[in-house]
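Lab notebook: predicted structure, single chain.

Context: the supervisor wants predicted structures on file for every construct in the current expression panel, including those that have not yet been purified. This is the next one on the list. No modifications to the sequence; it matches the entry in the shared construct table.
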Amino acid sequence: MRIKDLNIRINKEFKLSINKDSILTRINDAQEYDTDSLFYLYFPIPGTNATLKTIVTIKLIDRYTIIRFESVKYFKAHGTLFTSLDRTEKIISNYTVQDYLRIFNESVITKLITTSGKLEDVYGRNE
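Prediction complete. Output recorded below exactly as produced.
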């Protein structure tokens, strides 16, 4: 296993017509708080054996839930028989902010909008 700090600022907001409580119940291990909530979200990077740790703020404004993708903290990669840690690190090291936005949108936002129930691969924690 390898953990690599990234500390990349993103600062992109997503405005959803989904209740904040509903979103928090669909993210594994996320707990609801009465105020705006800072969360660490963890989700896999498609096509790799790595997981991203991101910081997001989830808040309710009027009838909309705003998810602000603050930053990417690090990735954690696991080597397998077919995928080396060096190869995974090389792939991820070439990602741009746009790549992280695309991954977040596909792994979190799109799933929140298009599916119901728990997001199987997305975990949230208040640390």
